[in-house]
Write a structure and sequence with these properties.
The complex is a heterodimer of chains A (about 160) and B (about 775).
Chain A (H helix, E strand, L loop, with lengths): L2 E8 L2 E8 L4 H8 L18 E4 L2 E4 L12 E3 L12 H9 L8 H14 L5 H7 L11 H12 L3
Parallel strand pairs in A: 1-5
Antiparallel strand pairs in A: 1-2, 3-4, 3-5
Chain B lengths: L1 H6 L14 H5 L16 E7 L5 E7 L1 H4 L4 E6 L6 E2 L6 E2 L5 E2 L5 E7 L2 H10 L1 E6 L6 H4 L28 E9 L2 H7 L2 E9 L11 E6 L5 E5 L4 H11 L7 E5 L16 H7 L7 E4 L2 H6 L6 E10 L5 E13 L5 H10 L9 E10 L13 H18 L4 H8 L18 H11 L13 E12 L9 E7 L5 E5 L8 H13 L6 E3 L3 E2 L14 H28 L6 E4 L2 E4 L5 E3 L3 H4 L1 E2 L6 E2 L4 E6 L22 E12 L5 E11 L6 H20 L5 E2 L2 E2 L19 E6 L21 H13 L10 H10 L5
Parallel strand pairs in B: 1-14, 12-13, 16-17, 20-21, 30-33
Antiparallel strand pairs in B: 1-7, 2-6, 2-8, 3-7, 4-5, 9-17, 10-15, 11-12, 11-14, 13-22, 15-16, 18-29, 19-20, 19-28, 23-24, 24-25, 26-27, 29-30, 31-32
Chain lengths: ~160, ~775
Amino acid sequence: MAIHRITVTINGEAELVDVPSHMTLLQMLREKLALTGTKNGCAAGECGACTALLNGEPVNSCMVLAVECDGAQITTVEGLAHDGQLDPVQDAIIEAGGVQCGFCTPGVLISARALLDRKPDPTEYDIRDALVGNLCRCTGYFRIIEGVKKAAKQKV
Amino acid sequence: MVMAETKKLPTPIGEDKPRVDVYEKVIGAAEYTDDIQFGPQLLHARIKRSPHPHALIKSIDVSKAETLPGVKVVVTGEDFPNHIGLYLKDKYIFARDRVRFIGEPVAGVAAVSEELAEKAVELIEVTYEPLDPVFDPEYGASPEAPLIHPDLENYEVPNFIFPKPGTNIANHFKIRKGDVETAWSQCAAIVERTFRIPHVQHVPIEPHVAIAKVDEKGEATVWAASQSPFAQRNLIAKALDISQSDMRVIAPYVGGGFGCKAGVTMEALPVAIATKAKGRPVKLLLTREEEFYTNFVRQGLVIKLKVGCDKNGNLLAMENTMYWDGGASTEYGVNITRAGGYSSTGPYDIPNVKTDSLCVYTNHPIGGAYRGFGMSELHAGIGQVMDELAEKIGMDKIEFHRLNCVQGGDILGTGMKMHPTGVKECVEKVAEAIDWGKKDPPSAPNKRRGKGVALMWKAPAMPPNAGSSAVIELNEDGTLTVNVGGQEIGQGTFTVMAQMAAAAMGVPFDWVRVKGPIDTNYSPYEWQTVASRLTWSMGNAVVNAALDARQQVLQMVAEAWDEDPDQLDIVNGTVVSYQSEQEMSLKDIVVYGIMKPGDTGWMGGPVVGRGNFMPTYVTGLNAETGQGERAVVHYTTGAQGFEIEIDLDTGKLEVVRAASAFDVGKAINPGLVKAQIEGGFVQGFSSAVFEEMKLKEGVMQNPSFVDYRIATSADVPSRHESIIVEVPQEDGPFGARGVGEHPMVPTIAALGNAIYDAVGVRLEGPPFSAEKIYLAMQDAGVVK
């Protein structure tokens, strides 16, 4: 089992990590770096709980090998807030009441952040489309969608 | 007293306070069970599972697995001879002698890595002798069916469950009220119909996970994603012959439960393995595939209904026969059948009732609690036959519901007298919200529009004496730490408990902390986080604890001021006297007490409030007639309505708008109540249009999110209105009763009625897929 030493920038911090060939980005985040905000819901790229930004693009981190991330920029839910200041999408989802059990929340927030980076003024259809890969069993999505709308209105 | 009055803050009861758990959840800091780090001593468990739906175990050879380097423990059913189960103790931790469903644990392995554990599982050789299986509950209840539990008569069972030894019937709940046979002859209209409700899965986004450590002395610690840390402690301890006091269950935040993390499902497996692991922690995390069929599922149901009314539309009689597909073990399912039985009329006043609710063993996955257990399934039938009967007698459907819905004072099917309830108001408000009676044209010529409404009721389904307790500690700065044993599974209970504690104590909301994890060593007892019972039951315990703490403070201050404690109050965190107008902050005195005049000593001491609650008034029901004085603690009622369109070319169903109304007694936090209504509505909608465990010869054909669809952000209706009705609960804290489960109960029926209204077809059961709707329209000649 080959071990690879890779350099990744995670939430703005450069990290040197030794990863086995078959280790996923999700496993690296959770097991090597104890960044457990990113969740494992299916390990098959189907539920979106493990969504992280890889060079600004949302990915299912359970479907990406850690070795592929050598030299990459990764953002996880832990990297959304800065200096105690929540990201507008975090504030807005709180205000809208879009959190229940909270297990899908990190993935939802990352997908929403990626959408707003790409399209600061999304339509409701854009929001639903951007979140279609983030399964939520508690909220019924209404307040999540509402939260992303609110976040879009608050310009950073 | 003017001074004190002006300091009064608005009570936090009825306010949309922000969730107390939300900040840590949005920054990724909230800790769930799988997030806990155990270090390099951690062993990983995997389970050898039965590939047969029904077979005798002839031999198990673990020798190759045991000698694989890195494998530390291999166990089989031989090692654990005791039964386990919440109501009916019919299950082993690992199968012994016989397997009863595909996925049943046969052996367990713990190794230094998951890969090695998996490899060891593959090396275990099991030989089976297949037996004839049972896949249909009606057949299973017949004398011809092979017996799945030949030892049924020897199982331990509580006195309100009635198994039939020598059959596959694990519980038979009966109601015999009035005389249905005579009543049929007086009916002007009768409807008879059979519905089949498929198995569905809870699908929490967090899979089941448990880690167990058993030290050399035999003391066990379990970390689990759990709705039931106390029930798990009790049942696992009993099954492994450990004292409850030597077993500790720690339960962090739960990433979705919906019933599947109640009772004991997979949690006993790592504990059993850990008993042989010499103090090393053993972790079992289920794969998504295992999550789908090796744990609790929602049981399938075949329901045969006959209802009749007189020429004025008054309901006269109901006959309801339910065959529940209990699966391989009915340890929890027997009580689902019981709940289905005592609530079998739905929220209707019917003088003559004959109910037979049968819990039948099959070789399907094990049925367990799922959000309002039994009720979504049962109401799928009741809600539709009522719709049909109203039409048959020629009455407006809303008028029919208003005429027949249950009201305070009615004598229910079980003989219990109904308490005041707002179901009539719920149905009226839902009808108004969807403009009942007004038919808008469809949005396109190839579409048909329709509206449907259904009512519901549900009582907390639990043992008669399920209890709650709470401990409130006061801190140096006057703030409150509220300790509870009920779990935050997303419903918002910690927030609601904080609101109740603040209101009862007389302090601002932000002075109260309610936090997990629930830890059976330190948290006070709570039966289980199920049955929509926490707001009501744990809420009462919290209020009692706050009143106890408050009384201690007032006594102390009254003594210090030499005043009557009845003249004192706590307002906004300050003790005030209406008599002398003195004031004293809670700060410091609630821990250090108060100095006696002239430094002559001290009075008081750290204030700790205790409170508990247990219903004491639920009575037994006669085994043959189901009659008794009080079957349940109370019913939460409600209604839901849809306006939909169906595409005649494809059968595709689209929701134009929907509305839900529930009588919650008192909404402690209206925003959280509405969040429950919305979330439950979508879960109900998802089960009504997408979800079905496709079981073929006991094999689940679709155990993944790709093949088992749940509603996504693209699927949810764009218009849904949540309506709160408040008819107070006599023994509820501030008048509140629960609503967590109820919002998904009427959904299948309401949607089924809307489909009928749109295109004139009624399906035998969900999911109401485009394909099934199209084929039904074809059969009925609606389309060619």
